[in-house]
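Format notes (please read before filing issues)

Several people have asked whether sequences and structure tokens are stored in separate files. They are not. Every record keeps both together, in the order shown below: the sequence lines, then the token lines. Line labels are part of the format and must not be stripped during preprocessing.
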Amino acid sequence: MVSTSIRRAVAKRLRANTTPHERIFWRALRELPLEGTHFRRQAPIGPYIVDFFCPAKGLIIELDGGHHNEDDVAAKDLERQCWLEREGYRVIRFWNSEITSDLTAVLERIYIELYGSREAEPTPLKHRRT
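Then the structure lines:
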């Protein structure tokens, strides 16, 4: 397994070199009225670095480009997702095209994942360390 310091350095480099879709999503996510909710970008979890992570809910959000359709990449994504889910995390995925074509629907889905329904009032979430 790769050392924690190396994973942190890689995560920092990824944060500095975000894709256009990640930048759009990050800005929108920060505008979402999520009281007490904290998201991290490019967060190291176990042997992986996830795109976006809400520690309070154990929610991981992955943004996928077209190369994730390739068989070898899709197989690695599945292996990674299974590992994360076995560790107790929930993983939701969005295509980059969803970010550009229907960002509102993406944010609605995240709100539902966090609070249970679109009508639910946001409540402060207890931050947990990972």
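For reference, the curators noted about this record: Helices lie at 4-16, 20-31, 71-86, 96-101, 103-115. The chain has one domain: 4-115.
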